[in-house]
Amino acid sequence: MTAPGLVPEAPTVGGTDVRLIIAECFGVETPTFQGEGPSCGHPALFIRLSRCNLTCARCDTKYTWDWSRFDPRQESTKRPVTDLVTWAASSPVELVVVTGGEPLIQQRGLVPLVRGLLAAGKRVECETNGTIAPDPALLVEGVRFNVSPKLAGFGVEEGKSIVPSALESFASSGRALFKFVASSLADLDRIAELSDAHGLTPVWVMPEGTTAEAVTATTRVLAGAVAARRWHLTTRLHVLAFADARGR
Predict the structure, then answer these.
(1) How far apart (Å, rounded) are the C-alpha atoms in residues 61 and 128?
(2) Mean pLDDT taken over the chain
(3) Cα Rg, the chain, nearest whole Å
(4) CA angle, corner 92, sides to 91 and 93, nearest 5?
(5) pLDDT tens, residue by residue, 184-221
(6) Which of 20, 164, 172, 184 is deepest in the core (most CB within 10 A)?
(7) What phi and psi, each to the nearest 5 degrees, are found at residue 171?
(8) How much of the chain exceeds pLDDT 90, in percent?
(9) 127: which strand partners?
């Protein structure tokens, strides 16, 4: 671990500081929390990578990939890994959430980023849709993958969003949990099918919704059935606390 006040030198590839395509970074200037999953409520910093390999109709971060509605020149920048590590190291907050978009599209740069964050004394949660198997260099102490496979009800063809080999790679890594967005009891049946077929455990269920009212209503629909299956239930704290404001 790096001594307090010192910023570690992030690893480079071929002697060149790798750059990542970033949508936004937040949590240093305006503090916030991880809003989902087992770290819900923990103070957190966020590094949101741009670009995605899926086009989910119900995605709430379309500014990372939908160029029919957003301008990529306005919504993304290329930033050196060393700058991102310095930014994160400027905060005493331990947890850094790397999200997207789909972060694993940029694995070449993600590896030195994660190494730099770990060297700075951070722990890392990487949020992924589970369609791309992780580089073994990322399966290390201090890193957890929050894998969120997208069901058909999320507005995507499961032939694209469900990749068995990738899911099984995460499941066998011992460094992943599986967080499904659900809006109906039928979604829970589909989650059970996928969990049984690919050994996905532990399972977390998150109610769909981008307003406090929608999250609360969907939670009440799902909660009893989730408890009966002995799965975990998570809310969307950022929606309840900050009305889904961008950068919170």
Answers:
(1) 13
(2) 93
(3) 18
(4) 90
(5) 999 999 999 999 999 999 999 999 999 999 999 999 99
(6) 20
(7) -60, -40
(8) 90
(9) 146
Beta-carbon contacts of 126 under 8 Å, excluding residues fewer than 6 positions away, are 97, 98, 99, 103, 104, 110, 114, 134, 138, 143, 144, 145, 146
73: three-class secondary structure by DSSP: helix
Mean pLDDT, range 47-64, rounded to an integer: 96
User: Quick check: helix, strand or coil at residue 80?
Assistant: strand
C-alpha–C-alpha distance, residues 10 and 83, integer Å: 9
The tokens describing 72, both together, are 């990529």
Tell me the fold of 19-152+160-177.
TIM Barrel (3.20.20)
| Tokens describing residue 100 | 């997207």
Contacts of 119 (CB under 8 A, 6+ apart): 1, 2, 8, 10, 85
List the structure tokens of 186. 């039928």
CA 74 to chain centre: 22
Strands 43-49 and 32-33: antiparallel
pTM above 0.90, yes or no: yes
- Is-contact 178 195, C-beta < 8 A? yes
Decide: 140 and 118 in contact? Cβ < 8 Å: yes
Distance of CA 69 to the CA centre of its chain: 22
Q: In this structure, are residues 99 and 65 in contact, taking their beta carbons and an 8 Å threshold? A: no
Q: 83 CB contacts (<8 Å, ≥6 apart)?
A: none
